[in-house]
Amino acid sequence: MTNKPGLIDFPSKIGVFWNSEPWPIRDAQNIAREIEDLGYGSLFMPEGGGKDVLVESAAFLGATERLVVGTGIANIHVRIPTMAESGARMLTALYPGRFILGLGVSHAPFVVGSLGGAYRKPLAMMRSYLDGMDSVPAELESGTRPTRLLAALGPRMIGLSGERADGAHPYLVLPEQTRTTRAILGEDRWIVTEQAIAIGGSAEDQLRRAHNHLDLYSRLDNYRNSWLRQGFDETDVVIGGSERLARALVGMGTAEEAAASVTAHLDAGADHVVVQVAVDAPTEDPLPDLRALAAALVL
C-alpha cells in the first residue's frame, strides 16, 4: 500500500492503456481479465464520445478482482462536474483502492465540432470543473472521494494537478518530461505515464504503426505544443510525426527493447506506466503484443 493520496494499490507498476470503445463490452471484459492474468496492474481507457467511460470502468471493475481501472481521460465536456464526482465516488465505494478518475479538457476541434460546445482556456476550464466537483456534499458516499489525476502536459496544468488533484497522467511524453513532471509535483503526488509500443513484424511495420498512432495527435495543438516544449521542432510535428518523433515516443524493436522504453519512465519518477499497443485499427487485438511485453517485463 502506498502513502500517496487516494489509497490506490496497484498490483504491479506496469498497466495497460487500451481504447475499448469499439469492442462489444463482453469481449472487452474478457480482454480485461486476461490483462489482469498477465500481471498488469491497471487498465486505463480514453473517452472518445462513443461510450461513457464511467460505465466502462464499472464493467471492468466488476469483471476483474485486483486490476486498478482508470479513466484516461474522462472528458470534462461530456458530463457535469457533480455527476463526475458522484459517479466516481460510487465506484470508489464499491471497489476501494481500485478506481482512478483521470480528467482532461479534451481538444478544441472535438469539443466545438463534435459536441457543439465552447472551448475556453484549458486551465480556467479545469479549475471551474474541479470547483463544481468539490461542491458535492461530503456526506454523499462519505469518505469515498475518488483519486483524481489530470491530463497534464504543460507546467501550469501539471501544477494544478498537484494543487487540486492527486497527480498527473502524462500522455505521449519522453522520460525527460516525466522527470520534469516529478520535479514540479514533488514526491507526494501520483504520476501515471502512458507509453506507446510497436513490436512484432518488420522494422518497417513497426514504424508505420507508430506513425499511424501519432497521426491524430499530430493534428492537435495540445500535443504539438507539448512536443515543441520537449525539444522537438516544426520538422518533427508534421502529420504523423517525423521518424525522429516516432522513434522517441513509441517503443519499437523487440519486446525487450520496448520494455526498456516503459521502465525508463519508472526510472524518471513515474509511479506507474500504462502501455498502449500501437495498432492499425482500433478493433485489432492488443493481447499478442501485451503477452510478449509481459514476458519481457517479467510481470
From TrEMBL:
GO molecular function, one term: oxidoreductase activity, acting on paired donors, with incorporation or reduction of molecular oxygen
Name of the featured protein: TIGR03620 family F420-dependent LLM class oxidoreductase
Domain Luciferase-like: 23-235
Alphabetized UniProt keyword annotations: Oxidoreductase
SUPFAM superfamilies in the record: Bacterial luciferase-like
Keyword Oxidoreductase part of the UniProt annotation: yes
Organism expressing this protein natively: Mycobacterium yunnanensis
PANTHER family named among the record's database cross-references: 5,10-METHYLENETETRAHYDROMETHANOPTERIN REDUCTASE, PTHR43244
InterPro entries registered for this protein in UniProt: F420-G6PD/mer (IPR050564), Lucif-like_OxRdatse_MSMEG_4141 (IPR019922), Luciferase-like_dom (IPR011251), Luciferase-like_sf (IPR036661)
